[in-house]
Structure formats: structure tokens, C-alpha cells
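Quick one: structure for this chain?
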Amino acid sequence: MAFFTQQEFHKMLFELTQSDAVCYNTLINIAEKTLYKSVCGWCNQTPVLKNCEEDLMQEIYIRLIKKCVTGFIMRDGVINDDPEGFKNWLFTVAKNIRNDFAKKMGAKELYEPNTPDGELPEGVCVDTAENDYDYDLLNRCFCIVLNSDSKVHIPLTWVTMMLVIAKGGLTRIEATESVVNICDGMNLDQMLDFITKQSETIIWLNLNQCQLDDVRKKLDEKDSCGVRTGDKKYSDFYMKKGAKASVSDWVNRMNSRIEKEVG
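Got it. Here's what it folds into:
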């Protein structure tokens, strides 16, 4: 399984060994693409690590920044141009940190899932295209949704759902409940603020500022009674079928639109 390209690997080597100013951006990007799904799987299957994936990833990033040059790239005094070996080394580092982290959290033993590195156990999802690392396509999906002419609460729902899945490693059912819990008491302005802040923590996601500005314009629109859309509570838009069914319906609508445009 290809987690990162040879071009990305060589870019990382240059940034860490030949650039005038050492840069860790590509290292972090490669680590996120390679490890995040496995980390979410570990956390979902290990009770003491539940919801610890972000903390665990931060520990991994710190260790990689400190050790990647001496521990792998220049381990033998010359540049180690071995992408496959680097991938294996990343998983070794990540598993060691996972074990140390779990022990600190009180785990007496670890359940080692019978799942290949980089893949998720059945029922665990961390992004909008399971086991697919085409981040350009994922960003295109976000663009399609934000460009849609649907009532503004519908694309906001889809984006929130995808962010919750990406950050929490949740199933679709769990994510639907999470969206309701998070957004039920928010107005739409607060919902957009939540989306903006959460998107900044996801390395691969690039929300288009012009599209966000267009969403804000829609939130500034007023209804026939003079009530501004952004001031309305998210729960005011629920259909008679209820909160969870409404969220699921709105997400399905956006997914159908994406399928039509992406094919």
C-alpha cells in the first residue's frame, strides 16, 4: 500500500538535510497520511486510548521531529533513500509511542488488531473516502458541497459531519449522533465558526476562503420576518422525522450531489 509518493519522500529528505532552513512540513504530512488511520483504529479498539488519537498523533509528531534524522535518514552517516523502510520505521515509532501512552493511561495489556498497517478495522472510518488517500478528491468534495445551492444548513451539516468523522474516527451512525450533540444548541453562525476552527487542525483539508465568504453572505440573508439566517438555531431546521434522521437525510443529499459531479 502506497501511503506517500517517492516525490514527497525526496522532498522531505531535502527539507531535513539540504534546505537552508530545516522544515518539517512534509515529514508531518507524510506521518499524518501514513499513520492516522491506524492510530484511530488503535484508539477505537483500546479502551484506555478512546478519543486519544489527536494526543497520540502529537506525541508521534514530536518524536519524529526529534529522531527522524538521526534515527533513520542519516542513521548510517549517509542519506537513507528508502521510502518503504521509512514507512516501516514510522509504524515502529508509532507503535512504541502507542504502547508507552497506553501504559501511562493504565493499560495492563494491549490488544493488537489483526489489521494491516494503515488500514482500519471494519466499521471504523476516519474520512470521507474509506481507505483512500486522494486528498485532492476529498478537497474537491468539500468544494462541491460548499458551492451547492442547497439551503445553507444542509452543506454546513455535511461539512460538520465529515470533520467529526475525520477527527474522531467515528462510524457514520456515531458521527450523526455527535453532530446533533455538538450543534443542537448552536446557531448557524456558531456552526460555521466551529467548522472554521476544526478545519484548521486537519492537515490535508484546505477550505476555500471565497467559498466560506459566500456561506457567510447566505448567513446574513434575512427571511420574510426579518430574522437573519445565521442567528437561527440549528435545531430549528430539523424535520418532523427528528434530529438524527434530519442530519442523515441532509448528508445523503450532499453525497448524492457529490456522486453526480464526481462520478
